[in-house]
Each structure stands twice: as structure tokens, then as C-alpha cells.
Amino acid sequence: MSEKANRQSESIPADSCVMAIFGATGDLTKRKLYPALYNLKREQYLPENFAIFGFGKEEMTADDFRKKLCSNMREFVLGEIDEDSIDWFIERTYYHGGDFSDKDFYENIGKQLETIDENHNTEGNWFFYMATPPSLFATISQQIDEAGLANEENGSWCSISFIKSKLAKGFCNKSELKSKIQSMFFAF
């Protein structure tokens, strides 16, 4: 058995979840994150009950965002594209544009997250991924917390992740950010 076939036969998909991406229309996201997600799907590491909810400052419809996502995947994924995998992403992708510092923004996405969760049976598991400038990490985390979006209830989980980049160096104080985040959540 080839190494790739052996790896696939042993692959265990991640838990069902909605991956909520702040900075979903950014350059690093389209060049790195979307191709990585595509590869995870292709290698069967993403669960069937999975959805992407993208957030950006840009106002656009979910359909326009889906078209952009597909175009980005076709441009930046290496190798042959599997149209069934592209369709799989289209069926599971949503978008909301607005101001990341606006309290109403988080109330609106909270309602939409619940609907997406029901539609895709993601069991209340939400993974917040920040592909934004580091100066927004604390603001977004605080808004998530204040809107009650990080609550773990009935066996569900919530996770927050920051994209690591050499570009982030010098734009925020790591210990200050850690202190702010720890004051909002149990663990960093």
C-alpha cells in the first residue's frame, strides 16, 4: 500500500464544526487557508458536518463570497481540482460583512451561526479563526466573549485561533494580548 493510501485509510476527520473566519476576504486567507482547507477535504480530514462562515469588512452577498472562494481555490490549490470537492465547499459556505468592532455585528453573526449549526448538524461546535491584523485579535476576542459566542454548552466546544505570520511581529505586544485573552477565556 502506498504511503498516501495508508495515510488516508488511517485518517480520522476532525469534529463537526463551523469554522468562522475573520479576514475571510484577505490575501493570506485566499492564498494559504483556503487551499489548506481544500487539501484537508481531499485527504478526508474534514468532517461531513462542516461549514465555513466567512467575515470581512467588505459588504457582499454569500453567493458572491462563494464565487470568490471557488475562484481562489482554483487559482491557488496545487494540482488537479476535484469539482465535487469545490461543490462540497459551496454548499457549506456563508458570509457576513461589517465592522469587527461593532457589537451588533456579533449579535447578527450569533443568530446566523445557530442557523448554520442547525443546517449542517455541527453540534454547536464553533472554531473562530482570525486571519486579521494582530491589532484586531483582542477586539474580536472580546466581542466574541461579550456576545456569548464562546459559551460551551451541552457538550459543544468553542476554539479561537490566530494566524501566525512574520508580518505580525512588532504589531502587537504578545504578553499584553495573552493577558487580555486570558481574562476573557479560561485557557489560552
In short:
This protein has seven helices and five strands; from the N terminus they run H-E-H-E-H-H-E-H-E-H-E-H. By secondary structure, it is an alpha/beta fold.
Highlighted features:
alpha/beta; Rossmann fold; 5 strands
Topology, pairings included?
Elements (H helix, E strand, L loop, with lengths): L2 H8 L6 E6 L4 H16 L7 E7 L5 H15 L6 H8 L2 E5 L5 H18 L5 E5 L6 H10 L11 E5 L11 H11 L4
Could you explain how this protein is built, in words?
By secondary structure, this protein is α/β, with parallel strands linked by helices. It has a single domain, classed as Rossmann fold (3-Layer(aba) Sandwich), CATH 3.40.50.720. The protein has a 5-stranded parallel β-sheet with strand order 3-2-1-4-5, sandwiched between helices. Helix 2 crosses helix 3 and helix 6 runs parallel beside helix 7. 29% of the residues are buried. About 4% of the residues have low confidence.
Mean pLDDT: 82
Alpha-beta content class: alpha/beta
The strand count comes to 5
Number of helices: 7
CATH structural architecture? 3-Layer(aba) Sandwich
Count of the domains: 1
- Order of strands in the sheet with most strands: 3-2-1-4-5
Here the CATH topology equals Rossmann fold
What overall geometry do the principal axes of the alpha carbons give?
A: globular
Largest sheet: 5 strands, parallel
